[in-house]
Amino acid sequence: MTRRCKLDIVIEILDVISNGTTKTKIVYEANLNFNIATKYLDLLQEKKFIRKNGNMYEITGEGQTFLKKAKELQI
Q1: What pLDDT does residue 3 have?
Q2: To pair with 20 at 20 to 30 A between CA atoms, which of 3, 11, 49, 56?
Q3: Cα atoms found within 13 Å of the Cα of residue 69, Cβ hemisphere only
Q4: CA-based Rg of the chain, rounded to a whole angstrom?
Q5: Is residue 12 situated within a structural domain?
Q6: Is residue 37 part of a domain?
Q7: What is the number of structural domains in the chain?
Q8: DSSP per residue over 8-22, as a string?
Q9: Tell me, what's the pLDDT at 53?
Q10: Dihedral sign, Cα of residue 14, residue 30, residue 19, residue 57
Q11: 43 C-beta neighbours (distance < 10 Å), count
């Protein structure tokens, strides 16, 4: 198994969040641990790509735009 780059992890997290989900589901579906997931979720919130609504994470319009463009760049 090869290591994933930061962009691959961000894309995977945004994919999981695209329908709204909890942190636990993000951890399991993106194959991360809670500490790493927390760091990425904080970063994505800071960049306004996601927002937290209660215990649910949702993708923003900016996040959807970024996800679409990032997937185009993925090799």
Answers
A1: 86
A2: 3
A3: 7
A4: 11
A5: yes
A6: yes
A7: 1
A8: HHHHHHHHHHTT-EE
A9: 94
A10: negative
A11: 14
Report pLDDT for 2: 74
Whether residue 34 is contained in a domain is answered as yes
Q: What is the mean pLDDT of the chain?
A: 94
CA angle 53, 72, 40 (to 5 degrees): 35
The CATH number assigned to the domain holding 56 equals 1.10.10.10
Residue 62's domain spans which residues?
6-70
Residue type, position 33, single letter: N
* Structure token pair of residue 27: 């951890």
The amino acid sitting at 28 is Y
Q: Please state whether 73 falls in left (phi above 0), alpha (psi between -120 and 50) or beta.
A: alpha
Answer for the pair 44, 23: CB distance below 8 angstroms, yes or no.
no
Q: List the chain pLDDT tens, one digit each, 75 residues.
A: 578 899 999 999 999 999 899 999 999 999 999 999 999 999 999 999 999 999 999 999 999 999 999 999 876
Q: Residue 10 falls within a domain, yes or no? A: yes
